[in-house]
Amino acid sequence: MKRLVALLMAICMMAVLFTGCVSKGGNDEEVTLTWYIQKSVSNVSGQDKVMEEVNRYIKEKGLNVTLDLKVVDAGNYGQKISMMISSGEQFDICTINDATSYVKYARDGGFVELDDLLPKYGKAVLEKTDDYAQEAMKVDGKTYAIKNQGTYAIAQSFVFKKDLVEKYNFDYKSVTCLADLEPYLKTIKENEPNITPLFHEIPDKVDQNYAELASGMVFNNEADEFQSIFDTEYYVNTWKVINDYYKKGYIAKDAISKTDKASEKKSGKYAVMSNTGYYTEDGSKSSAQLGFPCVEAYTGTTPILNMTGVRTCISSTCKDPEKAMQLINLIWEDDYLSNTLAYGVEGINYTIDEERTAEIGSKSVVPTSGSEQTWALWHNFVGPLWDQWDSPWNTRTSLEMMQEVNLQAPRLKALGFVFDSDPVKTEYSKMSSIVGELKTALNIGCIDDVDSYIADGKKRLTDAGYDKVLEELNKQYKEWEKNNK
């Protein structure tokens, strides 16, 4: 009897131990997890060395996982993910770059629900994501994604070539809106024949009451509804200023043909440009991006309406969702792992800036660039952007300012709402192409008269079903609002 009792106790203890192992992430058999992510640089040829170090480190940290990273060209990425989900092809993890696709795939059963997995295996993720950002990941009350860190709002600024500002002793800090630029643009026009005074498609000072969600439709926070952008005084007034500047020769006459905006800005041919992704008081971010000394005038931070940018999802075809979540959590938890995924291997893909490291008291790296650069993943694709090591890509100062932008920006009432255009997809497709055409001309100013151009455009939009789309948008929003109070 004693032997029988001892045997039963031993069996019970083994069962407890086994249960404990399972609660920590299933069985401990090694699993290979396939992760699809968008390519950040075109010349990727050193992935084997990076993944060798990544997988060595994952094992060292006690997770029995091999990561098989599939890096896909940006132009093909969305289509690749769409095809895999629709066909039921097996993969484990992916990043999704836009809210509309995310909602569609979640509703189609493409992703694993994370509401149980995150509390169990995603402690570091939950500690480092903003509560309101994660809340906005819910689709029909359930969570299917981790919201990667990033700027949910956008700090905007006017960017000035520093040499011209100094040459004409212009008080750029006094500029708060497009209208304030007039005297400076006139000076440049009259005295600098090889410089275009103003870069085309430049936004005005931010009005935090408005944000555009669907094509040509803006949310009015005060009115608590979506409106046509072509009936919104703030946007119409901006287009009138731009149209005036175009007629005065401050904007290039052939601006509509200059589609490579990044290269144009880097050319040094423009006195005033815009920065619609970040702001640094000393102009250092724009200077690094454009390649010549700049100064900036802050024009406001946009409100937060929808969670744009990257999110990480576990596929419904995932071989082991628990281990997938453990892997994601380890990346969020361990800055060496996340930065190795992003920067690559020391001595091959980056070097340490010892002087800068000593200055700031934390790690600073110098990634290889140009033709020698064979590896890079943008940190916000990986997940924990704020754990990025200091580098020319993002200094610690610029990262802190991005975080501050998120804290300062107002959150609109419609935050988390995503429009499902399927009920009006025919009308939405027709009107979207017209909206794109109208906005391009209005943003550049290359038209005779703003009011008549908008009036003609609205007739075309009405014929295409614009009013029906706007009605459907507000109907869905009110239903969402009722269920999310």
Structure overview:
This protein has 20 helices and 16 strands. The strands form five sheets. It has a five-stranded mixed beta sheet with strand order 2-1-3-14-6. It is of the alpha+beta class. The chain is globular, with a radius of gyration of 26 Å. The longest helix has 22 residues, at 2-23.
Describe the structure using short key phrases.
16 strands, 485 residues, globular, 5-stranded mixed sheet, 20 helices, single chain
Summarize the structure.
Helix content is 45%, strand content 15%. The protein has 485 residues and is α+β, with helices and mostly antiparallel strands.
Estimate the helix proportion, in percent: 40-55%
Number of strands: 16
Structural class: alpha+beta
What's the N-to-C terminus distance?
63 Å
Overall, the morphology is globular
Q: Quick one: biggest sheet?
A: 5 strands, mixed
Beta-strand percent range: 15-25%
Mean pLDDT: 90
Regions with little confidence, pLDDT below 50 for 5+ residues? 4-26
Strands of the biggest beta sheet: in what spatial order? Answer: 2-1-3-14-6
Radius of gyration: 26 Å
Helix tally equals: 20
Question: Topology of this structure?
Answer:
Elements: H1 2-23, E1 31-38, H2 47-60, E2 65-72, H3 74-87, E3 93-96, H4 99-107, H5 117-121, H6 123-128, H7 131-135, E4 138-139, E5 142-143, E6 146-147, E7 155-161, H8 162-167, H9 182-191, E8 196-198, E9 210-214, E10 217-220, E11 225-228, H10 233-247, H11 261-266, E12 270-275, H12 284-290, E13 294-301, E14 311-314, H13 321-333, H14 335-343, E15 350-352, H15 354-360, E16 365-367, H16 379-382, H17 396-408, H18 425-444, H19 450-464, H20 466-483
Parallel strand pairs: 1-2, 1-3, 8-12
Antiparallel strand pairs: 3-14, 4-5, 6-14, 7-12, 7-13, 9-10, 10-11, 15-16
